[in-house]
Amino acid sequence: MNPSTSKAEEATNQAQPEELQSTSSQFDKYRKPDGSIDYDYFYNNPHEGNMQLECTIVRHMLAQIKIGMDLGKITLPTFILERRSLLEMYADHFSHPQLFAAISEGKTSHDRMMAALKWYMSSFHAGRNYDVAKKPYNPILGEMFTCYYDFDKSTPSKPVLDGPVPWANDRSVAFYAEQVSHHPPISAFYAEHVANKVICNAHIWTKSRFYGLSIGVVNAGRAVISLLDHNEQYIFTFPAAYAKGILSVPYVELGGSATAVCPQTGFKAEIEFLTKSLWSKAANRLTCKVFSPNDQVPTDLIEGEWTGVLKLKKCPGSKNSPSKDQVFIDVTATPIHQKLVRPLGEQQPKESRFLWRYVTAALFVNDVDLATKRKSEIEQFQRDEAASRRSNKTDYAPKNFKRVQADDDESPWWYHPSLIDRLQKGSQIKLE
């Protein structure tokens, strides 16, 4: 056992059986030479083993809920779960790490605003591992996920031993996520590129409602990009998500408004994610208006598909507007880098892949009953932990995140020790 492992983590590990037990030989082809199951295989091969959605079960579930009902307490059938935690899904927002690192390289504040928008608009498409909409596992309180993206191998690098991912280097993008609250279910995540001094602090939690033929998910919270060399922050909100076609083949669309604001320079952007309509079959579209400081008329206009090509368009009334449409970004031609995750044998008990390994393995071989059983064990363990805290009259304290304003429930969560802490420049950045 890792000497830094807490008693709670030891209990989590002991609460689960040493190995999956099955009366069949369904796991035999996934065993290592020593006979143990290779759980890393199930995570590293996400496209295999997909199950067909059983619409009769979905209809049975929908018959129990009413239009407008909050779905926060509805348990979805295990067979429609994606084989990973929600914390890991958030890491996919950095699958274009080169765009995240490049935000600080803009020569002007306008260039950096546009670079931040380019990363943000390209960050939604990379996590589509399934052709149909599936729901990741709900993280339990205290769950963690760590990974990094090693995309710049041509430049000499050095390890960042005091960072959130000590096995990453200063030219990679390191990512750390933690479930910091259960009610409401808040996930917080942090990313950094040390060489360019770019960091991201974010917190997000979802509220779901049933609308008859779709499920709407409001993503509350925000992401704050900090450029330490420029003393600038870019504060983003998130669009809503809609699961449609739930009686046939479910798919996900993003919809609604989001904003991006830089308080230090005055640049701001209004982003509208557009869903399919009766008069238009176009999908995954957005439009973005960028405003310079003190301007009431947009200086830049971006339109297109966030899953394809976004164009910088001629913007009437703007002196800096291009004379003709230009490609702002083509995400299909932008390299996606795979996250690098430690093998499960090196992970702590509450790291996502280790924690959910039995559920993931069972779903991979389509054993829904076994997956449901293992999922229930994890959920029961979370309830037992909560009962123990109530009995001892103690509050839960996240491992690496703190609220910026401890007495404000709406305040964002900030990772510590962040790159700001480690460079001892905290006084230069005001936490918004």
TrEMBL record:
<feature type="compositionally biased region" description="Polar residues">
    <location>
        <begin position="1"/>
        <end position="27"/>
    </location>
</feature>
<feature type="region of interest" description="Disordered">
    <location>
        <begin position="1"/>
        <end position="30"/>
    </location>
</feature>
<dbReference type="InterPro" id="IPR000648">
    <property type="entry name" value="Oxysterol-bd"/>
</dbReference>
<dbReference type="GO" id="GO:0016020">
    <property type="term" value="C:membrane"/>
</dbReference>
<keyword id="KW-0446">Lipid-binding</keyword>
<dbReference type="InterPro" id="IPR018494">
    <property type="entry name" value="Oxysterol-bd_CS"/>
</dbReference>
<keyword id="KW-0445">Lipid transport</keyword>
<dbReference type="GO" id="GO:0032934">
    <property type="term" value="F:sterol binding"/>
</dbReference>
<dbReference type="InterPro" id="IPR037239">
    <property type="entry name" value="OSBP_sf"/>
</dbReference>
<dbReference type="GO" id="GO:0006869">
    <property type="term" value="P:lipid transport"/>
</dbReference>
<dbReference type="GO" id="GO:0005829">
    <property type="term" value="C:cytosol"/>
</dbReference>
<comment type="similarity">
    <text>Belongs to the OSBP family.</text>
</comment>
<protein>
    <recommendedName>
        <fullName>Oxysterol-binding protein</fullName>
    </recommendedName>
</protein>
<feature type="region of interest" description="Disordered">
    <location>
        <begin position="383"/>
        <end position="403"/>
    </location>
</feature>
<keyword id="KW-0813">Transport</keyword>
<dbReference type="Pfam" id="PF01237">
    <property type="entry name" value="Oxysterol_BP"/>
</dbReference>
